[in-house]
Amino acid sequence: MGLQTTFHAPAGGADFLGFRKSRAGSTEIVYDDGLKQRLIWRVCGVFGEAGISDALQAAVGAQRVLPTLFEELKKRAIEIEQVEI
Predict the structure, then answer these.
(1) Which of 8, 48, 78, 84 is deepest in the core (most CB within 10 A)?
(2) Average pLDDT value for residue range 9-30
(3) Exposed/middle/buried for 29, CB within 10 Å: 0-12, 13-18, 19+?
(4) CA Rg, the chain, in Å?
(5) Which residue has the higher pLDDT, 52 or 4?
């Protein structure tokens, strides 16, 4: 079975989290609230996709998605930097 790379908030929530490979080959995390906010972070260093997937899954199910995302990434020692859109 493949690794899940995109997540939507349960019960019809608009929050979306996903990760992807950029054209340069780096891993990026994408957040979209469905209204006005779209944020992208570049993952610093090399990390297993399973750890990133677990962090995103935990965050998207939380009531406060972004603070939980940062907490979950910190727990796993995954560093990110924001990408200007």
Answers:
(1) 78
(2) 86
(3) buried
(4) 12
(5) 52
- 80 token code pair: 């990110």
Long-range interactions of 30-34: CB distance < 8 A, separation 24+: 31/65, 31/66, 31/69
Tell me if 60 sits within 8 A of 9, measured CB to CB: yes
Cα gap 26→43, rounded to integer Å: 7
pLDDT above 80 for 31: yes
Residue 77 half-sphere exposure, CB side, CA atoms within 13 Å? Answer: 4
The Cα–Cα gap between 65 and 8 comes to: 11
Distance, CA of 59 to CA of 66 (rounded, Å) = 7
CA angle 12, 15, 21 (to 5 degrees): 125
Residue ranges of domains in the chain: 6-83
